[in-house]
Specification:
Blueprint (H helix, E strand, L loop, with lengths): L2 H23 L6 E10 L17 E4 L6 E6 L7 E4 L5 E4 L9 E5 L16 E4 L11 E4 L4 E4 L5 E4 L8 E7 L4 E8 L4 H7 L1 H8 L10 E4 L1 E2 H4 L10
Parallel strand pairs: 1-13
Antiparallel strand pairs: 1-12, 2-3, 2-14, 3-6, 4-5, 7-8, 8-9, 9-10, 11-12
Bound molecules: FE2/S2 (inorganic) cluster (FES).
């Protein structure tokens, strides 16, 4: 690298560091964690086609750990970037939707209140494209355990209920040449450590001793929630 380019790079990194500190002091945080990249795949291991994703139901995939479930959602309409805040005032910039129509979003499916999540047996948290009973909003991820609702079209900001924070965002990368989607990191407070503690026994039963904290490697299968869980409490009805 030329000396001039190197100095410009150093100056750029220094200004990013200063900007980050100023944001943190102002109650903002760029809470992004980069995780190993994983391709979203169907049951046959082929890439999920971002152009053919259905809009009525969320798909469930594991990321970044084999046991941490996430929702993949096609909103059916572009999602613009917004500022997202939790109830303590900390905020971050949500980059909007991915895919050919910027309509595809992904979130951790672990509720920000008391960590309800979709298991194979049951899910009280799900997505509804139409209006949900207690929040009155569409494009909503709703947790029927205690009626927390999140706006899937705006970074999973809290619409109603006791959750103190939005669902963490899974950052998606779209590859136009193949229509494939990749998960590349997590934005926001993900609650993975709390999740591992709260569900230790259940996770051992499901994944085996010491297996729930394995990282997803290479690809992760995305399955419609209605097929992933035997009993789904509908977000539109609860
Ligand atoms: S655990 Fe989801 S609202 Fe309480």
């Amino acid at each position: 690298m030329e000396k001039k380019s190197f100095l410009s790079l150093c100056a750029g990194l220094a200004s990013i560091a200063v900007a980050h500190r100023m944001l943190a002091e102002a109650g903002r945080a760029d809470e992004f964690t980069k995780w190993p990249k994983a391709m979203l795949a169907d049951g046959a291991g082929k890439p999920i086609n971002a152009r053919r994703l259905e809009t009525r139901e969320a798909l469930v995939f594991a990321y970044p750990y084999v046991s941490t479930p996430c929702f993949l959602i096609n909103l059916g309409a572009p999602a613009d970037p917004v500022e997202v805040s939790d109830k303590s005032g900390v905020s971050y910039h949500w980059p909007g939707g991915a895919g050919p129509a910027r309509s595809v979003v992904a979130y951790s499916a672990i509720c920000g209140h008391l960590l309800s999540y979709p298991s194979k047996r049951r899910s009280v948290i799900s997505y509804s494209s139409g209006p949900n009973n207690f929040s009155g909003h569409g494009h909503v991820v709703a947790c029927c355990a205690h009626h927390s609702a999140y706006d899937a079209s705006r970074g999973a900001v809290i619409l109603s209920g006791p959750a103190p924070q939005p669902l963490a965002t899974i950052i998606l990368q779209y590859e136009p040449a193949t229509e494939a989607l990749y998960a590349t990191g997590v934005l926001g407070r993900a609650l993975f450590d709390d999740f591992f503690v709260a569900y230790k026994k259940e996770l051992v039963e499901t994944y085996g001793p010491g297996q729930s904290k394995r990282m997803v490697e290479g690809r992760t299968v995305a399955t419609p929630l209605s097929q992933y869980s035997d009993n789904v409490v509908s977000a539109s009805l609860c």
